[in-house]
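A.,

Following up on our hallway conversation. Structure tokens first:
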């Protein structure tokens, strides 16, 4: 009985070794850069981390297909290196000697990529599935609609234009009043003023209209009249 069990385990181990090997059918290579991602807070990759990886792959497969019965034991790892790279396959839970098609595994990983990354505190760049393309995160939509932003900008420009026109009009009106006041003051200074010359009050000659001295006017009438 014991010999039969050992033989069965040996056959299964050999079968698993044939299923999980570099470049095997439906096998995927994984490369992990923990030190690059976490620096001084990097953790060691050990059997516990391998168990978590198997659990996350099994979770992805079960979540991808509601009818899937994938277990942790169906996820096989091989060729694990110290620089944390390895190959893995997912075996068929019903037969356990064949692998799940690579297209299904790829679809499951892509659908749950963020959950797998979060489990290891990594990103698509530091947790690489070499044959599985990275999924693009959905574009971030702004909380404010674009049309509302454009409307706000146009409204601000209109308000700024109105304020500019009002302020410039007020400044022009003040400037016009100031020029008018200065012109009136200048005209007042040019008006005729009364001064004293030799104790006799006389008027300053108005350069515009001119003035006639009354004394000389009387003499002219006296000597020139006929």
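Then the amino acids I'd put at each of the 226 positions:
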């Amino acid at each position: 009985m014991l010999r039969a069990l050992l033989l069965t385990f040996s056959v299964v181990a050999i079968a698993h070794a044939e299923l999980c090997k570099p470049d095997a059918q439906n096998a995927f290579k994984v490369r992990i850069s923990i030190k690059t991602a976490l620096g001084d807070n990097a953790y060691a990759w050990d059997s516990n981390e391998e168990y978590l990886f198997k659990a996350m792959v099994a979770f992805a497969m079960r979540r991808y297909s509601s009818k899937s019965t994938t277990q942790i034991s169906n996820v096989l790892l091989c060729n694990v290196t110290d620089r944390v790279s390895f190959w893995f396959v997912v075996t068929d839970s019903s037969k356990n000697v064949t692998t799940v098609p690579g297209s299904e595994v790829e679809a499951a990983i892509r659908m749950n990529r963020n959950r797998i990354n979060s489990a290891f505190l990594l990103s698509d760049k530091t947790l690489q599935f070499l044959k599985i393309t990275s999924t693009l995160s959905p574009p971030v939509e702004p909380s404010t609609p674009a049309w509302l932003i454009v409307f706000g900008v146009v409204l601000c420009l209109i308000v700024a234009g109105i304020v500019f026109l009002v302020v410039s009009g007020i400044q022009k009106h003040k400037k016009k009043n100031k020029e008018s006041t200065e012109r009136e003051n200048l005209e007042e200074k040019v008006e005729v003023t009364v001064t004293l010359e030799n104790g006799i009050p006389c008027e300053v000659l108005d350069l515009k209209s001119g003035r006639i001295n009354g004394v000389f006017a009387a003499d002219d009438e006296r000597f020139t009249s006929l």
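Residues 146-190 form the longest helix (45 residues). Curious whether your intuition agrees with the design.

B.
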